[in-house]
């Protein structure tokens, strides 16, 4: 009996050792796909779109919320949109300054990294502001550039396009490696419609069902099955043929070869420089400095 039990344990141990790598691969693939559904929400800011002027549909507002959350995670900056039907007599710049003092927005803490786009439909004013990290990365000249990019869409009433472009343009300058940002999001400074972001897609350009856990589970199971099948098929025997099996060492004449690096081409996009220190920025009543840009649309 002891010998029988030992024999069964020996076989079970060998089986577990042989196929444990398959199980490990399966778990790794499953974790990789399932991880795509987890988004690290802002530690402080929970809402990003404040559409008091009611310029957006519910679908557009939700799409922009998702985009702000995704790009906020990428840049560690809260990207806010404020639409107003009047500012109670305040200048729009003063309104944004007071909003920052009173609401204390920020990605990871109150009064943290924040970029704000505010428009007033009553006066047709537009104001962009950058606080903390955004003040450094989105200086006055950079915000001037972004404002000029989105003003035609605002004037045409394409508010969704203007707001999403503001977020993408801001994120492009807020990341440390804009080239990597382009590769990941397919964004190179063009308008939102040119990079494939639509209301029927997620902010990353993928269909919404792709991020559903059920779909990802099926895909991970299929891939794991393929990997396991290939490895089981290849585990039947050891390949003993190598490069020397059919080589005639007496007649073979192998010459040396080498690769020579010729040139490398690097394309850079110059970030606008701040040539006007006064600009559209300033200091809020609460003592928070910021960059800024203002105009009409």
Structural summary, described in words:
This protein has helices at 2-34, 58-75, 92-103, 133-137, 140-155, 159-174, 178-185, 213-234, and strands at residues 49-51, 78-84, 114-120, 125-131, 282-283, 289-296. It is an alpha/beta fold and 297 residues long. Residues 34-40, 189-206 and 273-279 have low confidence and may be disordered. Strands 1-2-3-4-6-5 form a six-stranded mixed β-sheet, with helices on both faces. A hairpin with a 5-residue loop joins strand 5 (282-283) and strand 6. It contains eight helices and six strands. The longest helix is centred in the N-terminal third of the chain and has 33 residues, at 2-34. The protein starts with a helix and ends with a strand. The chain folds into two domains: 2-32; 48-210 and 273-296, Diaminopimelate Epimerase, Chain A, domain 1.
Offer a quick outline of the entry.
This protein has 297 residues and is an alpha/beta fold. Helix content is 44%, strand content 11%. β5 and β6 form a beta hairpin.
What is the CATH level 1 assignment of the largest domain? Answer: Alpha Beta
Query: What is the rounded distance between the termini?
Result: 89 Å
Strand content: 5-15%
Q: Any idea what the shape is? A: elongated
Region (Disordered): 264-297
Protein name: TPM domain-containing protein
Domain TPM: 50-169
Biased composition (Gly residues): 277-289
